[in-house]
Amino acid sequence: MGVSLSKGGNVSLSKEAPSMKNVLIGLGWDARSTDGQDFDLDASAFLLTANGKVRSDADFIFYNNLKSSDGSTMHTGDNRTGEGDGDDESLKIKLDQIPADVDKVVFVVTIHDAQARRQSFGQVSGAFIRLVNDDTQVEVARYDLTEDASTETAMLFGELYRHNAEWKFRAVGQGYAGGLASVCAQYGINAA
């Protein structure tokens, strides 16, 4: 069991897993009882430069763009139900392949068709993000999201970031009411 993080907490990868080169980011959630409609949550990653924006749309990794052009970040595929235990969706990151001008990789989960289905993170329970050494399968850090997000349709779960030439992982837990479009706009992508 790795470090258990609280909202805003961070962990140094060079201290907790000094030899780690390949990271697995596992994201999970459960839909609380709903009206029977499908509840499809989607994980994505944004590779950001120092100005907090992507270099291009290719730095937005999601179910329709499964791999970054530099090969550093890969989405393992869309899970449309979120059923079962463990990770519902995951991304793999090769730390030594992340370009030098990328300072941060943020991990976001959105609710597909949230507005039309009248769904929000208030109907989600058991949400978590975990960072695993993908070579050893040892969990390095985990953040269980506990706050009420009754109106939010997108959630920034966590981020990998460079600090003084080392990689760190931070638990974020920031919600967005505007869904994927609002997150994309913040990071410089036109999702319209």
TrEMBL record:
Keywords: Tellurium resistance. GO terms for biological process: response to tellurium ion. InterPro entries: Stress/Tellurium_Resist (IPR051324), TerD (IPR003325). Residues 1-187 form the TerD domain. Belongs to the CAPAB/TerDEXZ family. Not known; seems to contribute to the tellurium resistance (Ter) mechanism. Also involved in phage inhibition (Phi) and colicin resistance (PacB). This is Tellurium resistance protein TerD. It comes from Xenorhabdus koppenhoeferi. The lineage of its organism: Bacteria, Pseudomonadati, Pseudomonadota, Gammaproteobacteria, Enterobacterales.
